[in-house]
Amino acid sequence: MRTYIIKSLFIAMALLVMQACKKDTVTVRSAAEGTAPTLKASATDVQLSSETANDNAVTFTWNKADYGYNAAVQYTLQIDKKGNKFAAAREYALDGTAALEQKFTVGDLNNSLVLMGFTPGASAELEVRVKSELRTNVDTLFSNVIEVKATPYAVIVNYPSLYVPAAYQGWSPATAEKVASILDNKEYEGYVNFADASNLIFKFTTDVNWTTTYGWASSTNTDSYAGGTFAAGANGNLFVPSTGYYLLKANTKNNTWEAQKTTFGIVGDATPGGWDNDTNMSFNATTKEWTVTANLAVGKLKFRANRSWDINYGDNSPANGFLKLNGGDIPITSAGRYTVVLNLSIAGNYTYSITKL
């Protein structure tokens, strides 16, 4: 009898526990519960050209996500390279009370594609979707994915930049040179000429109002290189060790900076020195261009700094007149005397010209 009572008590307790678990299961909502929005695009083969930069290129629209009750929903349009699984998507956040659409002008979409690393003149394949969520990473739903094609064109791109006010130019951000982050990843670079031996100091700042300024925190240097760390709001100045044309780098994720002195030349089997010996170029401080006039053979050439392959520029593929670090060889199809010009004065928009005389 005693055994029977114990067994009955155990069964009753088990039933109570199971019932409690059942009630808990009913009250917990799934993180992805609801119906995702459906995304549509006004075009999937988008035509881009500089002549229509202000025209509408494509409009993405979607219906409201359904969470089963009224809720304030945050929508984010995501665009990424096809096959990248949105691992590095560019995002456009929209308030749930705004119209359920995102419009792109030709110019805006073109700039976005260039910032995503697509090469002007080459077809870009994209995937687009909408993310809805009640707050960041809560009840996240994703729409269907739409594939879009577009071919960006070459323009002077206004990359995210830092200003480089310096002693030699009166510490004026408004007229200062810039360094640019061509991948919008807080890693900036650009070229600045320091010609005055008595004014070799500078800072980085985010805008013309000195809103956030990066000053010296630590450094090491040689006669042609300086680098170290900087800190936001620090009073100390960054510096280059001597006069010259410098590649400046700033990383605001790691608070590091570098200044590498450079001179440029052309190299390749089209040049007088072949692939082993550079033909030096001369810098013109007024035009901010490197130039050389030389006899060129049928063949190929590239630009490189300091007679080393550490910094070398070639063309994009297909060629579009803009240079790319470690880019392709530039063909010379007719032998003759040429003037070759290298222009690194607009950060992130490096160009060249080769003119037969």
TrEMBL record:
* Name of protein: SusE outer membrane protein domain-containing protein
Organism lineage reads as: Bacteria, Pseudomonadati, Bacteroidota, Sphingobacteriia, Sphingobacteriales
Annotated SusE outer membrane protein domain ranges read 29-131
Keywords assigned: Signal
Q: Which residues form the signal peptide?
A: 1-22
PROSITE patterns hit by this protein:
PROKAR_LIPOPROTEIN (PS51257)
Q: Which Pfam families match?
A: SusE (PF14292)
